[in-house]
Amino acid sequence: MTPSGLEQSTAFTAIWWVVAAMSVIAATLVVRLKDVLRAALALVGVFISVVLLFFMLNAELLAVAQLLIYGGAISILIIFAVLLTRDVHEGSPSNALQIPAFLLSAGLLAVVTFVINNTDWKLLSEARLAPA
After folding, report:
1. How far is the C-alpha of 60 from the C-alpha of 41, rounded, in Å?
2. How far apart are CA 120 and CA 83, in angstroms?
3. Cβ atoms within 10 A of the Cβ of 11, count?
4. How far apart are CA 26 and CA 19, in angstroms?
5. Helix axes 36-56, 75-83, angle to 10 degrees
């Protein structure tokens, strides 16, 4: 489907980038916040920004499903679970395994990048199909 009309406008592009940035910022807040309740509220922001992205992609069914299931039900369930947990005001404790976890994930990223770059990818147009 080629973009036409509204999708080619500068305002649409600007709104798209604002919503995409909001999604990335909210997702970063989910990971970085020490207060579990605020992280859960940032997760609601991620869900809502994904709903907006789906609407902008003309995927209204996915947007409504995302809004009802994740934006509504799952978000309320997470917030209730956080509020019913004891000692929420203390936040998440610091983890002594942060540096090893970072090194392990960086190593895994390096291995995956190496494999992707050094694989001889066969394209479907180049594949020789056996006669049926």
Report:
1. 24
2. 51
3. 8
4. 10
5. 180
